[in-house]
Amino acid sequence: MTTIEFKGVTKTFNNGFRAIQRTDLTINPGEFTVILGSSGAGKSTLLRMVNGLETPSQGEIFIDQRKLTPQNLRHIRAKVGMIFQQFNLVNRLNVMTNVLIGRSYYRRWWESLFYLFTKQDYKLAHWALERVELTDKVWQRASNLSGGQQQRVAIARVLAQKPQIIIADEPVASLDPATSLEILGLLSKICKEDGVTVLASLHQVNLAMQFADRIIGIKQGKVIFDDQPVNLLNNSLLETIYDKKEHEKIAVA
Ligand SMILES: Nc1ncnc2c1ncn2[C@@H]1O[C@H](COP(=O)(O)OP(=O)(O)OP(=O)(O)O)[C@@H](O)[C@H]1O
């Protein structure tokens, strides 16, 4: 099981805006850690640094005690599966091919370009689609699926990658409440059954409380809460993580 460490990490964008203040964090192996914070708090920036989609301005990131560098980025990306709010599927391709794309990290670039995958890749893709209960949709175009089904294809693609870490950037922000529960339940199951370290950002406090082993609250790029979910509600920090108005909106929702 794999640990993620942020050591003295900051992120300042080219326009001079500092999105992440100096951060030291260890994300424990095999845990479901949720990052909470209002819009613009820096959740995506923090997550995107784990697989090199953003680079820290200062400090270092370690995956399983191995420092993330441009030289080992491809190797580390193979271990880190990524799930996005907008699913990021190739809409014109069928479900199977989308899932096979998760195997690209283990293929030469031209093999992936021409969708040349091995029997073992197909076997893994089938296994992944079974895990997300989508074997009846294998040959359908991705664009013909519902949002929840598309997110399940994205999870299958990540599973086919055989990741040690899953980074999920607001994975349920585009889904209805029932489908959100289904998707987070699936991620939680994968975390517990496969020993995958999951680091997810969410907007919904109730969902974080239900699924997280640990919640990290950030505000203006700074960690202001880091504890078990049960300690969040006892703590006025919930009002601090979100400004009070937003908190009241969430409570009503
Ligand atoms: N490429 C960039 N250049 C300059 N500023 C950026 C860039 N990307 C993000 N930011 C800024 O950094 C801050 C953090 O952005 P980030 O996307 O990490 O927030 P977030 O917490 O994920 O927000 P949301 O919940 O709305 O997705 C925001 O103020 C954003 O405008």
Brief synopsis:
This protein has 253 residues and is an alpha/beta fold. It has 11 helices and 10 strands. The strands form 2 sheets. The protein has a 6-stranded mixed beta sheet with strand order 6-7-8-3-9-10, with helices on both faces.
Please, could you describe this protein's structure?
It is a single chain. The radius of gyration is 18 Å and the shape is globular. Helix 5 (119-131) crosses helix 6 and helix 6 runs parallel beside helix 7. With 253 residues, it is of the alpha/beta class. Strand 7 (165-169), helix 7 and strand 8 (197-202) form a beta-alpha-beta unit. The strands form 2 sheets. Strands 6-7-8-3-9-10 form a 6-stranded mixed beta sheet, with helices on both faces. A 4-stranded antiparallel beta sheet has the order 2-1-4-5, covered by helices on one side. The chain has a single domain, classed as P-loop containing nucleotide triphosphate hydrolases (Rossmann fold, 3-Layer(aba) Sandwich). The protein has 11 helices and 10 strands. Helix content is 38%, strand content 24%. The site of adenosine-5'-triphosphate has 12 residues, from helix 1. Adenosine-5'-triphosphate (ATP) is lined by residues 13, 15, 17, 19, 37, 39-45.
